[in-house]
Write a structure and sequence with these properties.
The structure holds 2 protein chains of 2 kinds. By secondary structure, chain A is mainly alpha-helical. Chain A contains 6 helices and 2 strands; from the N terminus they run H-E-E-H-H-H-H-H. Chain A has one domain. A two-stranded antiparallel ribbon of chain A has the order 1-2. About 11% of the residues of chain A have low confidence. The model of chain B has no long low-confidence stretch (mean pLDDT 94). The chains are: A mainly alpha, B mainly alpha. At the A-B interface, helix 4 and helix 6 of A face helix 5 and helix 7 of B.
Chain lengths: 133, 150
């Protein structure tokens, strides 16, 4: 019984480990340097909940789509990816996104302070990484 | 009565001239300048100098009215803000990340008409950008942006 429990515990631990070390999704910059940025699982979850609805290439929100489509990050030039990532950090700092109007209708889509920090850190680090810093 | 009001008004206009404007000083010695350090097409150089450099470089040319308050305050504010966002005179001192971000911003501002500010061509008609001017800047910026990572 104890052995079974131990095995189970090991299995769960191994699973957890596996989950944490697998990148949530890799985005490849279409560029001669062939650099990649990673979107970790925790970042992806936040993006899915609060950003992706407008910021994808099938979005009905044209402005959101034009400004930033997360699914197209892999097909734009590196300098543009850096521009987008820096913009993400900026709009979060300014509290411009998600828009207030949107949050009035979907309060559950709001970003907590912790979410914002996670996104900002990810965006800033990913941009620095692309720039080779 | 009317005379008093006029005198008061003139007094105020004279007095506000004494308020410091915080207008940035211009200088022609800019070793880190974008144009100085890069082989840009003449057309691009000309557009940048005519339509951008008054606020986005250390080489602002201040017309006479920019020395007269209250206009001087507006000019000083626009130049300060402009240089804070982007100063072509300091271009080479920026790291790659900042350059990439600014190039992306330039493309966006110039292609959707955000820049030059609408008030600027009112007094500088020559700074007005035609569609083909805008395209020239965008084309140059795109190739410069790509060259950063080649």
């Amino acid at each position: 019984m104890r052995k079974l429990f131990f095995t189970l515990l090991m299995a769960v631990t191994a699973l957890l480990f596996f989950n944490f070390t697998t990148p949530g999704g890799e985005v490849k910059a279409n560029d001669s340097n062939d650099k990649t940025i990673e979107i970790p699982e925790n970042v992806q979850t936040i993006l899915d909940n609060s950003c992706y609805g407008c910021h994808n290439s099938d979005s009905k929100n044209q402005k959101g789509r034009d400004k930033l489509s997360f699914d197209k990050l892999n097909s734009i030039k590196t300098y543009k990816v850096i521009g987008k990532l820096t913009d993400i950090a900026d709009v979060l700092n300014e509290g411009e996104m998600p828009p207030k109007k949107f949050l009035d209708n979907y309060p559950e889509r709001a970003l907590s302070d912790e979410d914002k920090e996670t996104l900002k850190n990810w965006a800033t680090d990913a941009a620095a990484n692309l720039a080779g810093k | 009565m009317k005379k008093t009001i006029w005198l008061l008004l003139i007094g105020i206009v004279v007095l506000i001239q004494l308020i410091p404007t915080g207008r940035p000083e211009s200088t022609d010695n800019n070793p880190n300048d974008l144009i100085v350090n890069n082989n840009l097409p003449d057309s691009v150089v000309s557009i940048l100098q005519t339509s951008c450099y008054d606020c986005h470089s250390n080489q602002s040319v201040y017309p006479w009215y920019s020395y007269v308050a209250p206009v001087s305050w507006l000019v000083a504010r626009d130049v300060r803000n402009g240089k804070e966002e982007l100063n072509f005179s300091e271009w080479e001192s920026l790291d790659k990340m900042k350059k990439a971000k600014l190039i992306d911003d330039i493309i966006e501002e110039v292609s959707d008409g955000g820049m030059p500010l609408q008030i600027y061509p009112l007094m500088h008609p020559e700074a007005k950008l035609t569609k083909s001017d805008r395209q020239m800047i965008v084309d140059w910026a795109e190739s410069y942006g790509e060259s950063l990572f080649e």
